[in-house]
Amino acid sequence: MSAPQKTKSGPAQIDVTVSAVVPVTEFVTRFEFTRRDGTEFPPFSGGAHTVVAMQDGTRTRLNPYSLMSDPADLSTYAISVRREDDGRGGSVFMHSQVKQGDAMTLTNPVNLFSLDLRAKKHIFFAGGIGITPFLAMIGQLELTNGNWELHYASRTPENAAYADVLLAKFPTKVHVYYSSANERIPLADVLDGQPLGTQAYACGPERLIDGVRDTAIGLGWPDSNVHSEEFLAPAAGAPFEVRLCKSDKTITVGEHESLLEALEREGVDAPFLCRGGACGQCETDVVSGAGELIHCDHWLEEEEHASGKKIMPCVSRFVGELLEIDR
Amino acid sequence: MSIQFNNETFRDDYSFHNSEWAIKRFPFPFHEDSYMYSMNAEQHQGGPDGSVYEKRFDVDEHYVSEMQDRAKVLADDPLRCQSLPHMTLAGWDLLELIMVSKSEDYPDLFELHRDGNQWRWVNKPLGIDDPFTFLDDTTLPYGPMEYITRQTQGDFALLDQREENLWMDAGMITTQADWSLDFDIGMNFFEWHAPVPKANEMGIFKRALKYLINIPQGSPGRRLNWTMTVNPLLDTSPENYHKWGIQKTTLTPENIGAKQHLRVELQTFFRLPRSNALAFPIRCYLCSFQDLTTMPKWGRRLHRVIRDLPDELATYKGFIDNRPMMLDYLSKFDDGLPTSPGIFPEPETEPPLKT
Amino acid sequence: MSKFEFPPSIGSRPIWGTLEPRTGASHLFIADAHGAEAIIDVATPELMETGHIIFISRGTDYADKLRALAPAQFYEGPSYDASLPRIKRVLSDAKMGLQVYLSGTEGLMGQATNEATSAGVPPAAIQTDHRGSTARRMQCVHCKGFTEDVETDPFVCSHCGLNLFVRDHYSRRLAAYQGVCVDAEDPGNVPAQKGIYE
Questions:
Q1: For residue C119, which residues of chain A lie inside 8 Å, CB to CB?
Q2: Which of A293, B213, B218, C96 could form a disulfide linkage to A108, CB 3.0–4.6 angstroms apart?
Q3: What's the number of domains chain C is made of?
Q4: Where are the domains of chain B?
Q5: Is B263 a catalytic residue?
């Protein structure tokens, strides 16, 4: 068509200043941002995430976090980060290094966990830090008098981020369960007898997501009415070598690094949106590979996994001699 | 105002006409001497100065007359604009996108004044000055999608995104290439494309859908599509096909240059931020064969493309019966010289027609 | 009665299935004419415990056989239109976990699907099974009128009288195939009628 333009990889970036760092619980801290150019943030929908760029020495970490601020207030974006001491280091960096006034970069919002706006009712199931996308979804639904309820499981009252605020604002819609008090979300009771057109959403540990899905299906709900946020952190694994055909380079992917991160480290242009194996944006052709692809994504079809011709560099790895990809 | 708007019609006496400026910037859809379906999408982040790709929503000399034609179509058949109940938020998204884009891209024609949710929209070419409350349906004379698309050239489909598919759940469709919104509303991506021959078996739609559901906020895309229309008729709807279909039989070797139009759709794709829906504007440009062939490159190429197009596609696009007459006419503009790659006419460098 | 094998078609044309028992809070069966056979094939005592059968007999005599399945509720009506208020009432009470089983003609299954999804039944909770007549419910794209039980192509619109050809393009929202003027470009030149599947 018209003159070719350089394709920018990943969603557009926003330069921000950290406007507040607010401890919420022992493990959870909220980070609030304002735009450095003084304008408003782009509007977003409940369930959207942003990818935060962290300059950790020479290493750039790019981690996705759900936007949890009120979609009606575009002066601020906020995320809440749980410190994972055994994680890949991003959350520890946010907790220990990021201070009010710091300059950072976010991406435009991307939503892979959106509300089904046809729903006659929305039921949210949150476990722990999985509460964050629901905060924005609730904000969005409150603007339009949406019909919703929340079931939130946490270890202790001290650990239940935002439970106090939610209970105070929506005492009849919010239900909190503490495992320290031997409380569990009564999934079958909650899901049974809901009106036609109800949609269920789960975010949190895999156990909770599977529990919601299995219970719903057992009651005769179709899978289509159960939604979950399926972010995956890239798995660690043995280092492997990759030959990049287009860039004419050979690189090594480290143990705690994803193939996508290795590409970025080497300055090789690679597209992304979710960095969690869900969106499909980083899909890459495999030219050859003497070994086995370890697929960890939710994107490719089973046949594509089996074909050995595609890989999602954000989460998937390789075990073998040498992988050759079309980047 | 920077643009001189034509006073013209797209029906009855068909006084529609393209100025030299409009011909030169016409989005000719063939980048080489042959055509097959492809997604051929690229980012919609501007384009050459003055081209139809430069602005997010192109406004040209046909603006005012096209909006008058749309108003007539809607008066005759209000079902051309419909929105399923869950798409109202997407309608507001679209209104915001268009008002912000047009007021920034054409400050002499459009103004948007915002104070919180109290907005004021000024559309000088159409003489509109409306204060309203953003996200409050009761403050506009129509729903938000209908309100803004009565003031914006091109058809608009709003696609809800769910279950890894896109659903045609709202639209303003009055300049369509022979498909019915009233029939197709509520369909998913594969269903509404079902009548298109060949493309399905080629896997095009599967790939196109993957591309579209990944369009991120702030990174719109675009592509071209095309068909043929006898007379500059914008409303080639199935609803009225029993009235306009007969016009296809009025071509003669004498009038074909003026009557036969290449109809090009500039399709763009925008992620809508509040609803997570996808806006799919389909902007229609018309150009007569006699105007197109004033560009030597386009005359040569159009002849070759139409000549070599598979019968199935010529049938689907509705001109198989008229193809021999088209080729008789176009062959006079094809001297066999090679053409340069790309869609732009390159009048300065392309050799003139050998006579 | 053997099931009709529909020829391969385009992606908007519905593909009818075979009813299977499913787990659910309650079970709603809507059938016309030979669609009764699909209910008889799928029925189990368990399904019938919370089962509600709505049967439009259209001159067939399956009603007694269906009654013999001992569903919790049974209704026999003369036409889809006559049964519609009851269908709406049943759906207004239903909860998530309802399973819907539709069988019989395309027109019946299409219209009942539409009614159920409008009430909020997820499309994935609706099963279908085509039995009996292959006649189509057609919508005239020009006048928007519906013509039921169309067996020939082309056919005459029962509302505006235009000669329409029968497309495979199908709208779930309208529960109808599209009919388009066949002689628009050559008025009066209407091809000879033949059966849709001839």
A1: 196-197
A2: B218
A3: 2
A4: 21-38+46-331
A5: no
Task: Report chain C's mean pLDDT, rounded to a whole number.
Answer: 96
Residue B113 DSSP one-character state: E
DSSP class of B79: G
Question: What is the three-class DSSP state of A132?
Answer: helix
Same domain, C35 and C106: yes
Integer CA distances (angstroms), C18 to B58, B151, C110, C131, in order? 51, 49, 15, 10
pLDDT top residue among A79 and A277: A79
Residues in B closer than 8 angstroms to A1, CB to CB, are: 31, 40, 42, 53, 222-224, 343
**Is the pLDDT confidence value at A1 over 60?**
no
Task: Decide: residue B307, CB within 10 A, 0-12 exposed, 13-18 middle, 19+ buried.
Answer: middle
Residues 6+ apart with CB under 8 A from C160: C140, C142, C143, C145
Q: Does A189 touch chain C (CB under 8 A)?
A: no
- Alpha-carbon gap, residue A27 to A159, rounded angstroms: 8
pLDDT along chain B (355 residues), means of 10: 90 97 97 84 89 97 98 98 97 98 97 97 98 97 98 98 96 92 96 80 78 89 94 96 94 97 97 97 98 97 96 92 97 96 92 87
Cβ distance of A218 and C23 shorter than 8 Å: yes
Nearest to B142 by CA among B168, B181, B116, B170: B170
CA atoms within 13 A on the CB side of A122: 27
> What is the dihedral sign for C-alpha B240, B264, B173, B212?
positive
Task: Kindly list the residues from chain A whose CB atom is less than 8 angstroms away from the CB atom of residue C87.
Answer: none
- At B227 the pLDDT is 94
Topology of domain A13-111, CATH:
Elongation Factor Tu (Ef-tu); domain 3 (2.40.30)
Report d(CA C55, CA C76) in Å as an integer. Answer: 5
Q: Which of B70, B223, B263, B304 is catalytic?
A: B223
pLDDT value for A4 = 33
CATH of A121-228, one of 3.40.50.80, 3.40.1190.10, 3.40.50.10540, 3.40.600.10: 3.40.50.80
Residue of A nearest to C27 (CA): A220
> Domain span at residue C162?
136-195
What is this structure's pTM?
0.92
Residue C154: cis peptide before it, omega within 30 degrees of 0: yes
Cβ of C124 and A218 within 8 Å? no
CA distances from B166 to A94, A131, B170, B197, C83 (A): 37, 28, 12, 20, 34
Q: What is the 3-state secondary structure (H, E, C) of A171-187?
A: CCCEEEEEHHHCCCCCH
B341 inside 8 A of chain A by CB: no
Q: CA torsion sign, A137 to A140 to A145 to A146?
A: negative
Does residue A53 surpass a pLDDT of 70?
yes
- Enter the DSSP assignment of C192: P
**Spatial CA neighbour of B114 closest among B104, B102, B95, B100:** B100
Predicted pLDDT of residue C66: 98
Question: Looking at chain B, how many residues does it have?
Answer: 355
Cβ–Cβ contact C18 with B under 8 A: no
Q: How far is residue B235's CA from residue B175's CA, in Å, rounded to a whole number?
A: 5
C46, HSE (Cβ side, Cα atoms, 13 Å):
7
Q: Which residues contact A164 (CB under 8 A, 6 or more apart)?
A: none
Q: What is the largest CA-CA distance in chain A?
A: 64
- Domain boundary at C130, C147, C182, which? C130
CA atoms within 13 A on the CB side of A326: 10
Q: Are strands C194-195 and C152-153 parallel, antiparallel or unpaired?
A: antiparallel
Per-residue model confidence (pLDDT) at position C63: 97
- Identify the domain boundary among C90, C106, C130: C130
